[in-house]
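Sample 3 of the quickstart, ligand iron/sulfur cluster:
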Amino acid sequence: MALQITQSCVNCWACVDVCPNDAIFQDTPHFLIDDGKCTECLGDHGVPQCAAICPIEMAIVDELGEFLNPPGR
Ligand code: SF4
Ligand code: SF4
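Result:
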């Protein structure tokens, strides 16, 4: 299980330090999540920390492509 960062990401760095698995890295043109490291925060936090802190709508999706921070959230 892993989340993904979309092209809506504005490279604000907010999610990088809250990830318990150091799964988020900078790439061109935006940040990405290493799907080999992302656990969706299971065992560490009740909710995915990257999605909880991300200020941008539609920047993080789950494996089904569902936005964790949909428009109007
Ligand atoms: S869901 Fe958790 S483990 Fe996965 S990238 Fe986000 S903060 Fe890291
Ligand atoms: S918090 Fe959201 S907008 Fe900021 S770097 Fe992470 S995914 Fe991108």
